[in-house]
Amino acid sequence: MKIVTSDQMRAIDRRAAEAGIATELLMENAGRAVAEETRGFVDYIAGRIVLVLAGPGNNGGDALVAARYLHEWGADVSLYLLGERAPADKNLALAKQHGIPLTFLHKDTKFAKLKNLLAVAEVVIDGILGTGRARPIGGGFKEILDRVNSEKQRRPQLHTLAIDIPTGMNADTGAADQSCLKADLTVTLGLPKPGLYSFPGAGMAGKVVVADIGIPERLSRSIKTELVTSVWAQSALPPRPASANKGTFGRVLAVVGSENYIGAAYLACMGAARVGAGVVTLSTAKSLQPILASKLTEATYAPLPETAKGILSEKAASAILSILPYYRVLLMGCGLGQHPNTRDFVRNVLSGLPQNPPVLILDADALNIVSGIDGWWKQLPAGTVVTPHAGEMSRLMGVSIARLQGNRLEMCRKAAAHWGKVVVLKGAFSVIADPAGRVRICDYANAGLASAGTGDVLAGAIAGLAGQGLPPFDAAVLGVYLHAAAGELVKGELGDAGMLASDLLPVLPKVIKELRERSLRGA
User: Element (H or E) spanning 41, and its range?
Assistant: First the structure.
């Protein structure tokens, strides 16, 4: 599903008009969709007391249509208009014909009428401002939003719904005005907006539903940003022919772990194995092998020479480079540590890669090490996947975390283009981008995944999928999706407090199984 910025949505609306699709029709479809989603969200609508806040623009027009449908379905609807509408406004005229009570902001002295309406409302629908508003909110609009938010705090059972985006939220970045309306449900129109999948805006939007309002798919075909869906994930799963052998599903070499981060090696290797890699080889300091072998029984091993316990020798890089031709994927970084010898090891491996290297996936300590190399991305082969969290990404880009998090989508897109690499910016609503400008957003934000080791599982999952022959970008996107979906299943069983990275491992195959079965059912 495409994700569009406010400018892109306006361009699509213009093209729709040029194609003969009337704005009036789109508004009618939008308003009805909002009414239908409202009815479904509150279980029943007849007799419900509904307050509809309608702004002066198209968002307000959608609100007028929604109010009319809710009134026809038996709701007790009141309209509160925050601005003048055109004299020939058809939807305002229809609202009047239906006898829906109207209150205008400029006639509501000291917000007395609003106070009374809010006090009894069971549902408030925000149709004040849509995607065109990015400036700070002030005056009467601010007062109204503050009053709705205060009433919601006083009465948590009050249902608040937003049309397209909550008023006060930046549709492109997710930045939120201090007075931004906090919605339980946002019915976004036509196509979703990036700000709905970036905090703090995502926290103001509540549940997000995308409403089809009749815009032809062809008008958004050139958009390169998409939401990752289960349908796409089904289509991207690598095949599992019955005639296969372990070589069919690829060989992954994982250069991971150190004396202080032994668990990272286990999690990364099992992440690769649990998504279906045929052979996973762990290459770590020789003294750590016996510890890991007792738990990581399915892996093979390529122990690295040491100068002391857990400290790699200068021969370690050549040992890795000598076995690379036998592997389809090289994963480096999870729990490697920052010892000077380790830094030299990583640099020597990367500088010594053959002309046709395996797919390279860099995570964690490998990223922190390369961030200290000028022009580090020039040393890495095409098709490399880097998987930073916000802190690592800020070091790689040389920007503050605040600036990065202020527009994760564009930062990730620009980094992928500049570096010529696939970038996975981890976190709530992970963003994946490639050098060609393709961007995917994963529609999951799970506090349970904010614990040590979950990133190691993800890096391993991406490596395991790449090992099965998926192109690096697809492997990264599918790995993020499977990892997030596994997190949701674990959260459903255990909750999001106390979830461990290892809890994800046995669930990854279950997610894959469910996707395959849904595909077979045509779901």
Answer: helix 23-41
Map out the domains of the chain with their CATH numbers.
6-223 (3.40.50.10260), 247-521 (3.40.1190.20)
Q: What is the pLDDT of residues 465-477, one digit of tens each?
A: 999 999 999 999 9
Q: pLDDT digit string (tens) for 439-466?
A: 999 999 999 999 999 999 999 999 999 9
> Which residue(s) pair with 424 in the sheet?
432
pLDDT band of residue 518 (cuts 50, 70, 90) is: confident
486's enclosing H/E stretch is helix 472-494
The dihedral built from the CA positions of residue 515, 520, 521 and 522, taken in this order, carries a sign that is positive
Q: Is 345 helix (H, G, I), strand (E, B) or coil?
A: helix
Alpha carbon distance 426, 408 (integer Å): 10
Q: Which residues, in sequence order, are CB contacts of 334 under 8 Å at separation 6+?
A: 254, 256, 257, 261, 264, 265, 267, 268, 363, 364, 365, 455, 456, 459, 460
Neighbours of 313 (CB within 10 A): 17
Cβ atoms of residues 125 and 163 within 8 Å: yes
pTM for this entry: 0.94
